[in-house]
Specification:
Blueprint: H1 3-32, H2 35-58
Helix pairs in contact: 1-2
Amino acid sequence: MDREPDRNRSGQYMGWGVGIGLAIGAGIGAAIDNIALGMGIGIAIGAGIGAAFQARGDDDG
């Protein structure tokens, strides 16, 4: 029963990571005049951020 909040929290980490990554990607896309490429880069960055937060949260217990 206490595993349920952990799963919800890990999903929130990935959501926040992808959201931040998309914002960064939009800025990169505007800078290089290619929004689609910037969004792709942003999704990759966001997935990495989310995975890092998720891994860090799993160490707590």
